[in-house]
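Appendix B.2, paired examples.
Example (i):
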Amino acid sequence: MKMIRTAAAALLCAAMLLTAACTAGKQTNPGEAGTTAVTEATTEDLSQYEKYRALSAVILYADDTAAVRAQTDAARASLTGAGYDLIRYAERLSPLAADFGALRVAADEAAKSGANIIIGTDSGYDALFSELAAEYPDILFLCNGGYRARGGNFFEYAVKLYEGFYLAGIAAAAHTSANMLGFVTESGTPQPIQCAIASGFALGARTVNAQTNVLLMPATDTKDAAACIRELAAVGCACVAGNFADHTAYEAAEAENLEIISFGKKGKPAAGNTVIANIYTDISDYLRKIFDAAADGNAQTMDHAFIGIQEHAVGIELYDAKAADLGKLTEEAVSLLTGGRFEIFSGKRLVFDRNALSFHTENAPLTDNNGAEIIPAGGYALEETVLNGYINFYAEGVLLR
């Protein structure tokens, strides 16, 4: 434990120094709770930030996937972009499964050094955060993607990633005439979030081409994402989606002339010459609400939040010559989703009218990839079930490799 504590403390110091050096020319004293650093570029009245001076937040995250790093980047950007910096440091913990001891140490250190908001960007933190919230009743604990009971000073948020992948499915199917798309997963064992995003991708693609199938292929220790891409290209996939943190995956796609849909933070991957779209998460608006509520003394009245396209937490960027046309399609789908006329996991579907170049909705059953009916035509939506982590099926159109 002493070795873990020493390592965690070293990481903590390095992260605090990095944060201080990057705060737009003004340093924050990491040991002084409530210190706010306002960027040099801010020219508006700074009095509006006074209420935040009593707050000090810490981010704890596992440096194991690009998706988690993207959410951490979004958290930091949301604060500095608003003209103030509440994030004191980010404690990087990797790998997650082996570092719960270090996570506990880091959280204790943060609590004892004056932090009053502790954010965990991985769902694996929820059990420990639940315990910590009981031990530190005056600190707010915020966790991404957990499904435990919440209330008091511990609450969670879930990002509707499947909405972004639904839009990506529309873009991919509209971009190609092929009936086969690929999807590289991070696990061979179906997990709720994997079932949701892969199903969303397939259902989105089928709004444009009802014959589209999505072939899932897990990256493993013996077969990395680049190998998966080559194999998917060999079986006729025209476009592959996935979270590709390694540049070799993009190089493999370019060598195979295979189009890619990436997932992570905003911006086209530097190595992604064949990337046609990028799904990103941005929890800026949500975090601003959290900090506003905390500054006003109302944070403990907040509940579990489901945030997606409507809350600007998920989006899609489109590239290449067809981006304008694809953008019109995805914007119309977004309008239907956010306007309450349609939900992805329900007994209603979007159908693309190629003559009118627009969508319409129709009642249709939602079935799994074995043909079993999950929701009858016109039936209720499963969104609450999906977001609470209980989805245990792949939708129609998803094939397992």
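Example (ii):
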Amino acid sequence: MPALPGLSVAPPGARASCPLLRVVILVIIGKLSGDLPLFLKPCLSHPLLILLISFFGLFKPPASQAADAPSTDAFLDELEKAHFQYFLKHSDQKSGLTMDSSRPDSACSIAAVGFSLSAHIVAAQRSYISRADARDYVLKTLRTLWSLPQSDATGGVSGYRGFFYHFLDGNKGWTRAWNCELSSIDTALLMAGVLSCKTYFDALDSGEHEIRDLAQKLFDRVEWDFMYRPSGFISMGWNPEKNKGFLKAEWNMYCEGPILLIEAIGSATHPVPAKAWLNYTGKFKLVDYDGQRFLNFTPTYGYQYPQCWIDFRELKDSYTAKKSGFDYFENAKRTLLAQHKYAVTNPMGWRDYGADCWGLTACDGPGFEKHIFKAKKVEFRGYSSRGPHDFDDGTIAPTAIAASLPYAPDLVLPTLRKWRESRPEIWGDCGFRDAFNPSFDERKASGWVDSSFLGIDQGPIVLMIENHRSAYMWNLMKKNDVILRGLSRAEFKGAWLPD
């Protein structure tokens, strides 16, 4: 008879006494492991049952698992709870809108609001906050979003055609900041959080009913087809000023685009054509690196953002079924392994790069300047996209790997532990700081250390740690009608999707 998960069979004859009781227990375990209804199987983990089994010597916990599992879970709980604090500390108390960064002059990032909405769900599930507190926060935020002005004016508005501007200025009533663009991807990330709230808050009380109603109205208002261009691709954004209009850049490469495409295709009110997905994947290019073949996008956020909400494990579309041969989760894993190998080989010779110091993505940096490193002037940047064999100035971003935990836990966990234990300077009141660069200032243990945290980096850490621990957000979104419809119209098949 196979052993229960996490328990190993004791050697035959280890306890020869009580043979009848052993037989009875074997029958019970056999039933529990195979024949009982699914809702009774949690009994397998009941401490009294485990104690009884262990006492009679039938099974015993593997020594390494018994020692490691609790400490790993406690460590991940510390990380998840710490990074969630960002959304408590840096969301406006009146509007609920979340700041782009922890800097005191920060504007609201619409994408960070989306991450905050979903992070509050995870926090309620983990009892970091109560469900009532999460409900109150979400309701306040959705009311704000619904009430903000929308039109084609160049100022004094927050969005247009259901889309929102990338950044909103709290000093101007949460309206367009810095002449930024009406952003398709940032609106999609916001709406991913909105949709998660619509699915999660399913109780009959008036507050949760209003959440579902507002979430539906906010999503249905987005005119995704407005951003769909004659080229067959979705524009990255639009500006209201004369002679500007749509950005030339379009979503025609592998990156974080899947969350946008699936929502836009899945809309019940303003969908883009289903062929938009085929157009999108038609531009994908496979690369080979050190024995790994994958779709390359050098900063890790491109893989993390869509998979914060969508479980792509064993899901196949026409591209993965006919061309790559592996799903998008596996693709993310391969790119992460390539990042790790890049840090180990360290072709540019950056200080501390190696098996326990790695992770490149878009993040803050030490500044836009040339600085002496190893007797040469090299270029450093402030906030910038970073990746292997792309731009790399020695800046490490904890979110690059912490939010990649599900892909390669055996590589990610030891690194996070090492940082937590030996780099106290990169830890703050909201978890790991956004970035550090050991090469920029070799006088200090971790060199330059960012003083700030970024909402769009904190959010994926919370959601992806939880997906690794319980798959909670993935499983929640498997029940969302927009996501299901979008995946179906894009002709995804397999795994958890209905036939």
